[in-house]
Request: fold
Amino acid sequence: MAAPRRGRLRAGAAPAPPTLLRIAVPSKGRLREPAIALLEDAGLGPETPGDRALAFPCRHAPVEALLVRADDIPEYVQDGVVDCGITGLDLVRERAADVTEVLRLGFGACSLEVAVPVESALGSATELRGARVATTFPRLAAELLPVPVELVPVDGSVELAPRLGLADAIVDLVSSGSTLRTNGLRSLGPLLESEAVLIAPSEPSAETLQLAAVFRSVVEARAARYLMLNAPESALAEICALVPGSRAPSILPLAEPGMVAVHSVIPAADVWRLLPALEAAGASSILLVPVERMLG
Ligand code: AMP
Reply:
């Protein structure tokens, strides 16, 4: 890691007001827009940054966002140049930055995978001993591969390395797997699951922890739906058994005798499975609405 930047700041520069929280946000790439959308959904009112903006303020909170390359964010946070930052867990681990992972943010999901050309005889990562492995993640590859390999560090277009004869295998980020397929590669399995994270120095400021709590309420709400349905009392036991979640559902009497309304918060990922099952159990007038915040 490079030496801390704080010491390199211009002498005499006016310190930021103590209550202004500075958060580093990816300046480009696939994490930029979802990170800004999180500030928006958290109610901070971020000003829309232009393509060339280096920073932007928030209208509703004493928060300034600095636009920084995603792979530089771990270092900026470690050095205390910003209070916290949003970047990929893969980059945090690759840079071995001395930072705390405060919160997983539920977007930018991908995995760091080992892959070989489809025609390769290699069948698992344990067979890679001594193989040439191209990657932009040399530290993680060396740490996570089960056998020693010859690393071929590259800056980009990793998928091309086997075709160019530079490597026998690659270690790269995969989300849908379509880039691997397009390039005639086959995954031998994941080494690390990653997603966007909020990171802070090892002792986060009170303002950072406050912001993290607001982000958490948004992240949890995005993964939930509010379910409302009507049902005959006779179907209640079966319906309650179907509805997952940590809390018991609310049961409300309806004007129609023998009928009740059931309200519950359910995981968004269960919706596709749950709705037909609820209908089959006798539920009617099923409504599903988004949740904006979840606290407590
Ligand atoms: P980018 O700036 O677009 O190259 O990507 C920066 C970060 O996006 C990566 O470090 C990952 O944390 C995340 N990411 C999510 N899905 C993918 C993917 N399929 N390929 C590369 N990066 C991904």
